Records
---
Amino acid sequence: PLTSRVTVNRIWMRFFGRGLVETEEDFGSQGAPPTHPALLDWLSLEFQRLGWSQKSLHRLIVTSETYRQASQHRPDLLDKDPRNLLLARQERFRLEAEVARDAALSASGLLEPTIGGPSVFPPQPEGVYAFTQVNKSWPTETGRNRYRRGLYTFFFRSAPYPLFTTFDTPDFQAVCTRRLRSNTPLQALTLANDPAFFELAQGLALRLAIEVPGEFAATLDDRIHRATLLCLSRKPNATEQRVLREFVTREVAAFQNDAAAAEALATPALRKVAAAPEAAGLVLLARALLNTDNFITRE
């Protein structure tokens, strides 16, 4: 059943970074053979038995022991299976462009869950269209639409959304079955300086101040704990907790001597629930966590 085999393989590729047939665009004689042919056949038949329900297939895969493995490298497997074709561990790979932004939206609590509707225009750096051949306008959204999922972002083929381009989104000039995954300094600079991510860091700081209320020094450890859970889906270890506490404490002390800088970082809404230096410290905590490799990487 070719249709179900191709569909199952592409869904598998989304969860593991590589399909059971690595040439997911070519199941013919020139394509790569499946690494687990019996598994591919069984999943194809199971997909049909489930009424071609992708949701049911997703549940089947993510509840399997293979998917739930840790992604740590095992020295005993490096010589036997360096590419992890036997799936003895989970794969570790960077999130796709839209998903990276959606993850930041979710962590900040600003994600707008509305489904469907026209394309939207989230914030982007100024001057993006200054060097294009055709004049284009980008009417940046001012309401909740600026927090829609990346799926709904308007896309100019000749001048695509910069954040997505940095994270290897296809150019829409040709069919793409598999996205490249680069690892460049520009991605870290984008996470640190893109106006959309800066706004989401401010949103995350406000969420921390509201969800963990109280005197700043007494609640700092709890706020760091909460921020790490929201951004990395795990608790911070002792070293991370100490480093982040020292970082925030140092920055808050600096902001107490620079009120203008503190007010530039903290939004009016944030200053209503925390003093400006403390609010600015929370924004920097959020920016630091949103700019980590662990945040944009699926373990």
---
Amino acid sequence: MKNEQGAPIMAGPGKIFLVDDLESSRMFHRVVCNRLFPDAEIFEARNGVEALKIINEAGPLSAKDVLVTDCRMPRIDGATDGLTLISNIKSMKLPILVAMLSGSQDSLDKAEELGAGLCMLKDGDFHSFWEIVAQWILFRQSV
């Protein structure tokens, strides 16, 4: 099945929580998500504090929901905000994907250690990024 732009519509998330301090990153993610997953509810937050509030207000979470967060944002814990967010969210059993524009292998390792299910660097190809996310969600639902 394809949307009006001819892009494939994929089985994907129910709720998508986009957490990034950069408006441009959230905008690109939102545009691609709307094309690939037209039925998904998209929530946005600029930092971990906003994310926790939005997640708590969004209602019950399901296995189809996903949190996509940057690792370096303001608030909660300065440069490790995304990592602090991961440790707070882990107890909610919300699948966590860490997407960093730049970062060290140590940051990726720490995110995985804290419970992120998938960690990857953003390379600007948001469409391919979300195709990977969709495959990851389908895999998680099958196990």
---
Amino acid sequence: MQRLFSLLLPLALASGCALAQAPKAIEDVEPEVTQQVAAAVAKMAIDPAAEGAALLRPCASPPPLELLRRTVDGEERTYLYRTQCGKPLLVSATYGKNGAIKRLQLKTE
């Protein structure tokens, strides 16, 4: 029994890893937020000192964003977007209670 388990465990783990897929886009019911995030990403792209600006250099113009997730934690709202700029990128934007972007992060997917 133990031998069978030790043979099946790596197979199960490998098949689980192979099934992992990129998250799918969800309906964007707040397009004005997406426009604000897109504008902030465009500003980031032209600021050489901005963290993540190097990831945006391959794009001639600001790439479109697709919403993957929206979460609420107290008075903060966090939006996760995917964009393509040479390679898939993830954009995370957190809004504070004042309705302004509090944190904007960009990383490869």
---
Amino acid sequence: MASADRAVLNAMAKTVLSIQSAVTYGMVGNAVAQPALQRLGCDVWRIDTVTFSNHPGHGAFTGRIVPAPEIAQLIQGLDNLGVLDRVDAVISGYLGSADTAEAVADAVVRVRRANPDAIYVLDPVIGDGGRRFVKPGVAEAIVDRLLPLADLVTPNPYELGWLTDGIANDEIGALAAARALRPRLRQEGLATVVVTGVPQGHDRLTTLALTADGTLRASQSRIARSTNGTGDLFAALLTGWLLRDGSIGMALARTIAGLVAVMQATLAADADELRLLDALDRVAAPAPLWPVERLLSSS
């Protein structure tokens, strides 16, 4: 690549501060978000909230929760360095403790002070399939400290129901709950709720995106295998495409197409972890784009 071309590419590169889990074995949290975002041309500054041997869903695991003061020190260090104005987006995912939410909130506030155009994408990792799997106080801290700062939130039906004290087990319930949730986000920003994995009959899942301009829907076949990290990958890809294109509709179409490509690679390899690296080229240039339809007003 010529130096002039490289300079243009660097000028266009977006920077994402990614605050979520880290595992030695597996593709969840920052382990999946970092390579996905980098393949989309983003610089990724990662801060790990936990360092585990593997996803707890495998059963036994070792490691530790990173203390909130350590996370706060890393953010303070970036602020001292004077580089937070380069951050275009903050993503937060799995939090090891309730105290971590305060450190994340501080990071978002500091980034926005340095770059008012930066967005905050909240993946409210609380649970799934009717089961809550975060430590006591984490879900409440997400609601109290992080939700009011978020521009975009990506809950699954269980998390959406928990955030709204509602039931979001089908499209009607998810739409109602998402409409109730959207006004609680930061209204100066995107104020977008993207609900993933909404059941549609027995064999399909729907993704719903509620924005100030209306409601978008994408539907795909239910995949027989449940693999850890799909929500983390979805949030990362959606953020990366949104930074590149600015359109939630196009970002959603590219994100789902890329996610399906990764799941196809995972099934083909009969793997128990996402085979992201096998599908990176299709993630970066998804074709065809996944169909996304516009529904009714979200007001």
